Amino acid sequence: MKLLLTSGGVTNPSIQSALVQLLGKPIGDANALCVPTATYGHPMCTPGTAWRFVAGRSPSPMVDLGWKSMGLLELTALPTIGAQRWVPWVREADVLLVDGGDATYLCHWMRESGLADLLPSLPDLVWVGVSAGSMVMTPRIGADFVEWPSAPDDRTLGIVDFSIFPHLDAFPENTLADAERWAADLGVPAYAIDEQTAIKVVDGSVEVVSEGQWTKFG
């Protein structure tokens, strides 16, 4: 699987160019599924948050980029409808667009639904994450980012071997000093990235794509 891990979505030409490279085709020729599930695990998100993402009215450019087709993949529904229905939907998609919220909640439903087990068999699929939709791919998110009360700890999928501190300087509590304290407790390499930065991962090769600010720790 190919990853484009963002803080704020496809916010500039450099990140959009990286997305097109991963797709291997123009955005207008690609079939997408959007995943709003993570929003429901975060206390600051509402039904309106999920709707804005799905409707392409989110501040994080994703759904509104001009895709050939767009569908909604709600992970909490998948265990009740059977893999024979939803697995073909994912296999036919070129890209999954995964919104933010709480990464531990998203991780839980990726495992419960079976999506986490399916992903390794989809080497051509592109995963584009926003915030928690990116953090879910890391080994740990740090206790400060766990908002779902039922989360057993801060561990996530560990598909990549580094952690991500998103929204650098976008909020008062997301300064570089805050990121440095957060990274010191993780025990893994980590990146702090702002809204103009993404991390591209292909076959284990990591590349930072940025028109903004970012820092690597460890």
UniProtKB/TrEMBL annotation:
Keyword Protease: yes
Domain of life of the source: Bacteria
Keyword Lyase tagged: no
Keywords, comma-separated and alphabetical: Hydrolase, Protease, Serine protease
Family designation: Belongs to the peptidase S51 family.
Protein name (record): Type 1 glutamine amidotransferase-like domain-containing protein
Taxonomic placement: Bacteria, Bacillati, Actinomycetota, Actinomycetes, Micromonosporales
